[in-house]
Design goal:
- With 201 residues, this protein is α/β, with parallel strands linked by helices.
- The protein has a single domain, classed as 3-Layer(aba) Sandwich (Rossmann fold), CATH 3.40.50.300.
- 51% of the residues lie in helices and 14% in strands.
- The strands form 2 sheets. The chain has a 5-stranded parallel sheet with strand order 2-5-1-6-7, with helices on both faces. The chain has a two-stranded antiparallel sheet with strand order 3-4.
- The longest helix is centred in the middle third of the chain and has 25 residues.
- The radius of gyration is 17 Å and the shape is globular.
- The mean pLDDT is 95.
- It binds dephospho coenzyme A (COD) and adenosine-5'-triphosphate.
- Adenosine-5'-triphosphate binds next to helix 1 and helix 9.
Length: 201
């Protein structure tokens, strides 16, 4: 089974592109969705201890947590140290299920793939990218998003230019949905034909 790592900075189009892979029959594990699921459904003692002000009825209130972190960005590191091992565990279970089902491809959508050195856990890395202007417009258009919060998140992400350099495949999402979909199909075909990278191609 070939494990695809999909990444890109905030608002570059990861979720949209992951959906396109899913529509082509590739099973997808979305790290952000796993985090949200943990907050909604799991009573994690370490989170209760570290962020008591963001807990409602035993589980994390994500909006409150987000406000707390925007006010105190240094706490993000602590949050990551609690959350990332849980995400990693879910990822392993997902891959085991896919292997057992005999899948030929599986995709991990990992926003912080390079930052947490997850390249070692995947066979090929696909990076989504677009113009920084478009990125900012997309993100600031989201309800609840502020310039401060965006800057807090960007400060924890590797610059897009560096991600692009490290990519095996690039998908530009500034040219519309159809162009991105064609590119997804092309990448799947390349992988199925054993071509794992376009680096130095
Ligand atoms: C900071 C939190 C509370 C903000 O919640 P909110 O609902 O507003 O945003 P959401 O989760 O949808 O994230 C928005 C974007 O920021 C990115 N992002 C989230 N956390 C981080 C982080 N620690 N570092 C860099 N980027 C991040 C996400 O991948 C996504 O692209 C939340 O993102 C969170 O709990 N982050 C910590 C967990 C984490 O590291 N997640 C990254 C993927 S495992
Ligand atoms: N190929 C594309 N063509 C046009 N618009 C796109 C394309 N890909 C994504 N978008 C738009 O960009 C916005 C952000 O996309 P998306 O939510 O997929 O980003 P993301 O990288 O997953 O964000 P985050 O990092 O916050 O999770 C959405 O409004 C989406 O419709």
């Amino acid at each position: 089974m070939i494990v695809i790592g999909l990444t890109g900075s905030i608002g570059m189009g990861k979720s949209t592109t992951a959906k396109m892979f899913a529509e082509e029959g590739v099973a997808v594990n979305d790290a952000d969705a796993v985090v949200h699921d943990i907050y909604r459904n799991e009573d994690v003692a370490a989170l209760r201890d570290a962020f008591p002000g963001s807990i409602r009825s035993g589980i994390v209130d994500r909006q409150q947590l987000s406000r707390e972190l925007t006010a105190a960005p240094e706490k993000l590191r602590l949050l990551e140290s609690i959350i990332h091992p849980l995400v990693r565990q879910r990822e392993k279970e997902f891959l085991a299920r896919q292997r057992q089902a005999g899948a030929d491809l599986a995709l991990l959508d990992i926003p912080l793939l390079f930052e947490v050195k997850a390249e070692d856990r995947v066979d090929t890395v696909v990076v989504v990218t677009c113009d920084p202007q478009i990125q900012r417009e997309r993100v600031l258009a989201r309800p609840g998003m502020t310039a401060e919060k965006l800057d807090m998140i960007l400060s924890r992400q590797m610059p897009d230019a560096e991600k692009r350099k490290r990519a095996d495949f690039l998908i530009h999402t500034g040219a519309g949905m159809n162009a991105a979909r064609q590119r997804v199909k092309q990448i799947i075909a390349a992988l199925k034909a054993g071509r794992m990278t376009e680096k130095h191609a």
